[in-house]
Design a protein that fits this description.
The protein has 264 residues and is an alpha+beta fold. The protein has 2 domains: 206 residues, Cupin (Jelly Rolls, Sandwich); 43 residues, no CATH class. The strands form 2 sheets. The chain has a 7-stranded antiparallel sheet with strand order 1-9-6-11-4-3-2. It has a 4-stranded antiparallel sheet with strand order 5-10-7-8, with no helix packed on it. It is globular, with a radius of gyration of 18 Å.
Length: 264
C-alpha cells in the first residue's frame, strides 16, 4: 500500500499483510475479548436485515470469549473496540494504520485520535446500512464478506439520513442508498471507507475476522458537531445547511455544541 497512491477521499480497495498475524486468530481474539472492559465488547445475533432503522438486536448470555470461540455456530457478530488498549495489541495499531494515517496527513487531515477495532462474524452475518463519523480502513483477515457503500443522490435525503445517525440513539439509515456499489473482500484485502459514507456488510460462508483502523480528524469532529447542531435546529425549524458550505457558520455551530457539552 503506497502512501502516494492511496486515495483516502474515496472508497478504495487496497492490500494488506496481516493475514498471518497471530494476534488476529479466533483464539487470540477470544482471549482479548475477555481481557477488555465489558463496555468495549459488543455482540448480537446477526441474522438481521440490511435495513434496521432502530438497530434492535438480541444477545446471548455468555462471556465475550465464549461468544467469539463459538462464532462458527452461534450466529453472532462481535465487535472489540479500543483493542489497542491491550498492551500486546498496541504495536498492531501502528503497523496496521501507519501508511493509511500518513496518507490522511498528506492530504491535509490533522489526526486527533485513532482506534483499532476487531470484528468477528458468523457465516452470513449482516451489518445493516449505517455510517461512521470517522475515517476507516477495513482489513479482511479471515473469510470473505461483501461490503456495500453508497450515498443518497437527493441532497436533503442525504442530510436527513446523516442526522439520524447523529441522534443520541445513533439510529441506522431507514432505507438503502440509491447510489451504491458492492465489493467482495477476501483475506489480504482492505477497503478505505471515508467518514460519513453509508455502508453495510454481508458475511460469506465462513467465519469472518476483520480489523478496522479508525482515524478521528479535526474535520470529522467539526462535521459531527455541525450535524449534531442541525438535529436540534431542525426541531426549531431553523435553517440546517450541511457542513462545508460556510466555514464561519460551521465554526459557530461547533462552538455552540462544545459549549452545550461543557454545560452538561
Amino acid at each position: 500500500m503506497s502512501v502516494t497512491s492511496l486515495d483516502v477521499r474515496t472508497v478504495t480497495l487496497v492490500d494488506h499483510d496481516l493475514v498471518d498475524e497471530p494476534l488476529l486468530t479466533l483464539d487470540a481474539l477470544a482471549d482479548a475479548a475477555d481481557r477488555l472492559p465489558a463496555h468495549l465488547v459488543e455482540h448480537h445475533l446477526a441474522d438481521i436485515p440490511r435495513v434496521l432503522p432502530g438497530g434492535e438486536t438480541k444477545v446471548l448470555e455468555q462471556t465475550p470469549g465464549e461468544i467469539v470461540r463459538g462464532v462458527g455456530s452461534n450466529g453472532c457478530w462481535v465487535m472489540l473496540t479500543a483493542l489497542a488498549r491491550l498492551p500486546d495489541y498496541t504495536p498492531l495499531l501502528t503497523r496496521a494504520a501507519g501508511r493509511y494515517e500518513l496518507a490522511l496527513r498528506a492530504r491535509g487531515e490533522k489526526i486527533v485520535g485513532h482506534n483499532l477495532v476487531a470484528f468477528i462474524g458468523a457465516p452470513g452475518a449482516t451489518v445493516p446500512v449505517h455510517f461512521d463519523r470517522n475515517h476507516h480502513l477495513l482489513l479482511q483477515v479471515r473469510g470473505t464478506k461483501t461490503v456495500g457503500t453508497g450515498q443518497f443522490t437527493d441532497a436533503r435525503e442525504q442530510e436527513l439520513q446523516r442526522e439520524r445517525g447523529m441522534q443520541f440513539q445513533r439510529l441506522n439509515a431507514d432505507r438503502m442508498p440509491d447510489a451504491a456499489e458492492e465489493r467482495e473482500l477476501g483475506p489480504g484485502q482492505a477497503l478505505v471507507i471515508p467518514a460519513y459514507t453509508f455502508h453495510w456488510v454481508q458475511g460469506g460462508d465462513d467465519v469472518s475476522i476483520a480489523l478496522t483502523c479508525t482515524a478521528t480528524t479535526e474535520s470529522t469532529m467539526r462535521e459531527a458537531a455541525v450535524y449534531r447542531f442541525n438535529v436540534k435546529a431542525r426541531r426549531w425549524h431553523l435553517p440546517t445547511p450541511p457542513p462545508g458550505r460556510h466555514a464561519s457558520l460551521d465554526l459557530a455551530r461547533q462552538r455552540a455544541i462544545a459549549w452545550r457539552d461543557r454545560k452538561r
